[in-house]
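Hi R.,

Here's the chain you asked about this morning:
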Amino acid sequence: MVTPVVWVAVDEAARRIGGSAGSGAARRAAALFRRILHRPAPPVTVPPLTREQLAQVWTEVLEMSARRGISRQRATLIADTVVARLATDTKGSAS
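And the predicted structure, written out as tokens:
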């Protein structure tokens, strides 16, 4: 239940940060074709984010969690974990 919340929140934050609504639809279509063809998804590459962008991701995860009925305490833990992972990823990819 938590994983979809995190991915949707991060995707939404990425759209707001980069204004890439069209590329989000393209990514979802590509994911659908990969599932149909039984091909693994390519690794996700996340460029280094600024403090402001990390704050936006944190807020999106927190808001999405609240909409899904996750407690404030658990939502905060999830948001903190996601942002910590994005902030400390030295390889530039999220797995």
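The chain is about 70% helix and 5% strand.

Let me know if you need anything else.
M.
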